[in-house]
Amino acid sequence: MVAQVHQDQLTRIKKNIERSHEYFQDNVKRFNYFRQFVFQSSLSEADRAALKETKKPILEFNSLEAFISRLRGEFSKQEPSIAVRLLDHSGLDPNLPLILEGHLRSIFDEANHNGCSYEVYTDILSGGFSAMKVWTEYQHEKSFDQVIKIGRVYDPTLVGFDPLAVLPHKGDGRYCFELIPKTKEEFQAEYPDIDLSTLKFSKVEGFNWSYQNQHEEVLLLCDYYVKKKKSKKLVRLSNSHTLLAEDYQKFAQYWQETGRLDQIPHIVEERTTSLETIHRYRLIESTVLSHEETSYQFLPIVYVDGNSIRLTNNGQAKQVTRPYVYHALGNQKLKNFAGQCLANELENMVMHKWKVAAESIPEKYLEAYTNPQKASVLVYNAFLEGSQGMIPLPPPQEVGRVSAPPEIIQTFTGADSTMQSILGSYDASLGINNNQLSGVAIVEGATLSNAAAMPYVVSFLQSLNQVAQIIVDLIPKYYITPRTLPVTLPDGKRNYALINQQGGITLKYRSEQLEVCVSAGVNFAIQKSRALQQIIALMQASPLFAQFINTEGLPILLDNLEIRGIDQLKSQTETFVQQIKAQQQQQMNQPNPLQEKLNVEKTKLAAELQRNQLQHAHKTMELGLSKESIATDRMKLMADMQMAHNQNLVQLEKAQTERLAKEIEWAMKTSMIHKQ
Questions:
Q1: Given pLDDT bands bounded at 50, 70 and 90, which one contains residue 234?
Q2: 376 Ramachandran zone, left/alpha/beta (phi>0; psi -120 to 50)
Q3: First-last CA distance in the chain
Q4: What are the two backbone dihedrals, phi and then psi, of residue 14, each rounded to the nearest 5 degrees?
Q5: How far is residue 253 from each of residues 48, 167, 259, measured CA to CA in Å?
């Protein structure tokens, strides 16, 4: 039924797929050619036929893989830096970005265990491009919970995108697709009701939906993802929140069911918006097998660019992908040719030592000429036998070897330095030929070589950032039940976080509320070596910094080490640092003998001081009592003096009174006598 409903879409979908394949066909050919040139053989069948024709040795001196392998090895130690930040803080847990960062690291680590990043980086170095995809699957056979997975596509050359896409990851395109080869028997076992009688399994050059591979009939199964737009009404509420008009009815119903007494936010503005949904069609050449509207907001297949460039030719723009060794192709062929010519010179080198007339060699002395490695004397006949000394014979002459042309040797040896100049990789020549370069110079040269390949790292991280954006958008759509979420901490430790339950974080958000940024970490081996040297130099310059590194900064020092057993050393270091801190705390709590002695002396001094203070207080008190006694005696003396003075006054008053009485009495007596 699905096939009949969407059968009218089949022609349009096939046309888009074939147009995309035609647009990218040159890049696909270049991808396959360079990967075969680098990893299999730098000699084509035409080159081998030409060497056979000219009777030269079929040799090759491929040095391109060594440059790519060095970058791959360096990339295997690189860890991307993931940052998630909130753009809209309304109603979101502030710890949400940390949980999302940890879960993104966990998903990337799981994918890298299967070689995702390593294989994708190998693709863009050797072929010029690659692709990754994001999908969901059940956690295990007996689970209803789905998990998000990422990985490299089956074959980057069987993936296509909209030719009008501009962004590096091609997420702005209208569609994308992945073609999966399946044998006819395998497909019929999976889809027994599909009629394949109209398919022609023939050997045809170029793109074909069904073909014959040796003795097997193969058809292409296509997963086609296309963007479709829907017009929706968007409303803004009085509390500044925005949502779709159809969701506002659900929001109002939920508001009433919760029994909230405050007034529901009312609509203050509305407009029409266009929302994109991703639809997936699964089809073969003749039939649309299924159709569904997915939960993706972004196209789930992400293009990974290398170092491509867009060129316009005759008014038609095309994207030209270029592998890392794109410009070194001619130099590699030149090195092969010079080496083959040099090998041909060695192969045809004259091995004769002597040129001598046959009549000049006595038969019994022939071994001295045919076996020159055995010490002997070269004896020859000066005259022809039987000529009685009349016919002289030429003496033996040493055959001089003709050396190979110096241009061949110079071209062969100079090809390596030319290769390094083309690729911008100079560290391979450092430290040889006694050029007396220091270790710092070697590290700096290796760092510059990493910088020459940095465009490929930048392109990879741009696509990885798009993958992270897709994952962050899918998390609230699939992680809706209470569960534990695996997270990887920045130090590499694994842990679990509770989500959608009490004590955990609720994963209910919109992807527009978050911003995801994936950037290059500082974990390249050469950068670690440089960081280690800088830390050591700072420790030597500052004892305080050395003390800090030896305690709190020891894990940072170990992160920049590249030695065997570093993981075990890191785990043991944490225990060691904790023990050191515990010992320091214990030492701080335990009494120090010298400190105890000082404390005793301080106690004695305090007691002596207290005793002196008491004595002083006692003496002061005694002095005070003496002063009080003196004051009392003085007051008593003054009181006695006052009393004596008062008594004297009384006596004087009494004497005066008596005297006055006597004078009056005498006057009266005198008056009476006078009267008498």
A1: confident
A2: beta
A3: 182
A4: -65, -35
A5: 78, 42, 10
Region of residue 454 (left: phi > 0; alpha: psi -120 to 50; beta: else): alpha
Q: Has residue 151 got a pLDDT over 90? A: yes
- Gyration radius of the chain over CA positions: 51
Alpha carbons 551 and 560: distance in angstroms, whole number: 16
- Size of the chain, expressed as the number of residues it contains: 676
Cα–Cα distance measured from residue 19 to residue 163, given in angstroms and rounded to the nearest whole number: 8
pTM, entire model:
0.73
What percent of the chain stands above pLDDT 70?
89
CA angle 670-673-676, nearest 5°? Answer: 150
For β-strands 242-244 and 216-237, DSSP reports them as antiparallel
Distance (Å, whole) CA 238 – CA 480: 29
Residue (of 473, 132, 139) closest to 294 by Cα position: 473
CA 512, distance to chain mean position in Å, is: 24
What pLDDT does residue 262 have? Answer: 77
Amino acid symbol at 170: K
The residue written with tokens 């950068």 in the block is: 527
| Tokens, residue 305 | 């660019």
Q: Tell me the one-letter amino acid at 620.
A: T
C-alpha–C-alpha distance, residues 215 and 442, integer Å: 54
Single-letter code of the amino acid located at 449 = S
